[in-house]
Design a protein that fits this description.
14 strands; about 270 residues; disordered N terminus; Rossmann fold; ten-stranded mixed β-sheet
């Protein structure tokens, strides 16, 4: 059996593999070097990092590269307004208005409290059964995306009240829905420490780390000589081999998030 590696421009090449998975490139050069097979189609990938680490910029860059190559992207914002996100996209060389006209982009701001209440009502009606219909709550029926970006899980998890298992059940069903429909997703999560590894699991959103297929961590790197830079790591990617190293990244006007190829050197602290 073979797997197929798809680029965002629709081209593909067969490669022998026992898994038979389809993979997609991101066209962010340094990202693709760390995950050379590509991201398995239908994977749910967490984008983790602290405030100002570049999580939203990374997702906007992923959006730009996907739409440029004819992929349909749904950007679900729970924080920033649609207009502000489009301004960011234009600063990074994207043309969101053209993408929308071509039916490639759907940017929508959601109310996290409304979604949490709808989910909790469904769960109460179903008496906490694990099978609930998440599609009408989040995914617009008139838009069939290849990629979904959620900004952010932190906002959604904080909107759930009472039993913390409700958020986990909801996320598990959402991931299943996206995988079933072969929709690759990138989900932003703000964390207080560099990665979930080795920390105490005290937040409702922490359980999502175990449910997700992939984790990309963004860091603030503080070098001993007083320079602060950004770092990038693919922590895990189910169904694909990864290069397990931390590299530098930065934000460039007209490009978005640029991931370097060099490993970190010298004395530094990750925050």
């Amino acid at each position: 059996m073979s797997k197929t590696i798809h680029s965002f421009d629709g081209k593909s090449r067969a490669k022998k593999s026992p898994e038979g998975l389809q993979h997609s490139k991101t066209y962010i050069n340094g990202f693709d070097k760390l995950c050379p097979e590509g991201i398995p189609v239908g994977n749910a990938v967490l984008i983790e990092g602290g405030p100002g680490s570049g999580k939203t910029i990374l997702c906007l860059t992923l959006l730009k590269e996907a739409c440029k190559r004819g992929k349909k992207v749904l950007y679900m914002s729970f924080e920033e307004r649609e207009e502000r996100l489009k301004i960011h996209l234009k600063n990074f060389g994207a043309n969101p208005d053209e993408y929308e006209k071509k039916g490639l982009l759907y940017v929508k701001r959601f109310n996290a409290l409304d979604i949490a209440r709808s989910v909790e009502a469904l769960l109460s009606e179903a008496k906490k059964e694990l099978l609930i219909e998440v599609q009408p709550i989040l995914i617009p029926t008139e838009f069939k995306p290849d990629i979904v970006i959620m900004d952010s899980l932190t906002s959604i998890s904080s909107a759930f009240s009472g039993d913390p298992s409700r958020f986990r059940i909801y996320m598990e069903q959402l991931f299943r829905y996206l995988e079933k429909h072969e929709i690759t997703s990138f989900l932003i999560r703000e964390v207080s420490s560099p990665t979930h590894i080795g920390t105490n699991f005290v937040e409702k959103a922490e359980a999502v780390s175990f449910l997700a297929d992939g984790i990309v961590a963004l860091y603030s790197i503080y070098y001993s000589h007083g320079i602060r830079k950004r770092g990038f790591e693919v922590v895990k990617m189910r169904g694909a081999e990864i290069d397990r190293k931390i590299v530098e990244c930065n934000i460039e006007k007209g490009k978005g998030l640029v991931v370097k190829n060099n490993s970190l050197k010298g004395n530094y602290i990750l925050t």
